[in-house]
Amino acid sequence: MHTHDLSISVQTAVLTVSDTRTKQTDLSGTAINELLIESGHSVKEYSIVSDDIELISSFIRTQSENPEIQAIIITGGTGFTPRDVTYEAVSRLFEKEMTGFGELFRSLSYEEIGVKAMFSRAAAGSRNGCAIYALPGSLNAVKLGMTKLILPSIQHFTEELNRI
After folding, report:
1. What are 106-142's pLDDT values in tens digits?
2. Taking the chain, what is the end-to-end CA distance rounded to the nearest angstrom?
3. Topology of 11-161 in CATH?
4. How far apart are CA 55 and CA 163, in angstroms?
5. What does the alpha-carbon distance between residue 162 and residue 164 come to, in Å, rounded to a whole number?
6. What global pTM score does this model have?
7. Are residues 120 and 79 in contact, defined by beta-carbon separation less than 8 angstroms?
8. H or E segment to which residue 2 belongs
9. Domains of the chain, residue spans
């Protein structure tokens, strides 16, 4: 059985997608940063961009090509409003999509919020050896995704992406 080293520190970039948040009011992005650091990982980049597919795509391309970044975590823009374009941005850039991530996130979310969980387009995948996660913008969704899915698996994901 392949095991992974939980002591490995993953170098991350965090992106909040919002037309209204600032670093002072971004509870979800702040929570991601704090949870990563508390778990021994480092946040090399933290940005906020508006709900614009090109701005989101540019961040993903830049960070996934940065050799110092092993994982990108995005919050916001995964719903169904006309402004929600994060899924479109990430899915077209994935080299491989981790379909189980979205399925598990919605299943766990269903236990907490019921059928509204269907409206989440949370997703994960990879590009250029970099793990990419997209979570909804709500603080509860971020805490759920980080504690139940991302933090328990981020080392394994990054190891798998760089295994020869």
Report:
1. 999 999 999 999 999 999 999 999 999 999 999 999 9
2. 17
3. Molybdenum Cofactor Biosythetic Enzyme; Chain A (3.40.980)
4. 30
5. 6
6. 0.95
7. yes
8. none
9. 11-161
Closest to 64 measured CA to CA, from 52, 72, 73: 72
Distances (CA, A) of 27 to 6, 123, 127: 27, 20, 27
Query: CA 110 to CA 156: how far, in whole Å?
Result: 26
Question: What band does 6 get if pLDDT is binned at 50, 70 and 90?
Answer: low
CB atoms within 10 A of CB 100: 11
**128 in helix, strand or coil?**
coil
Could you tell me if 137 and 18 are in contact, meaning their C-beta atoms sit under 8 angstroms apart? yes
The Cα 89–Cα 151 span in angstroms is 23
Residues 136, 138, 141: CA angle, nearest 5 degrees: 65
Dist CA 42 CA 109 (whole Å): 27
Q: What is the pLDDT of residue 8?
A: 80
Write out pLDDT tens, residues 52-96: 999 999 999 999 999 999 999 999 999 999 999 999 999 999 999
Let me know: does 92 contact 85? Beta carbons within 8 Å.
no
